[in-house]
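We read letters as residues; the integers encode the fold. Take this protein.
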Amino acid sequence: MENGNGITKADLKAALTELKTEIVDELTGRMRQIETNLLTEFHRYGKGQQLRLHTIESRDAIITERLAIIEERLLHLESRRPPTV
């Protein structure tokens, strides 16, 4: 069936299908790029947080060690034994 412009219904349907495919392909590409960008940023954020956590854990270990030394010295003072450290 032909309309006044000489385009058949089948031609119009084919053109619309091709346009739909192009739009879907373009949107799929953009969504993949967005996904890649998000994953990259989440990874960067995670690396920074891991570094901060490692720093905190290291400082905590040092403080715990110093506190143990102080407790040992205090125990020696309270028991009036000479310190070994």
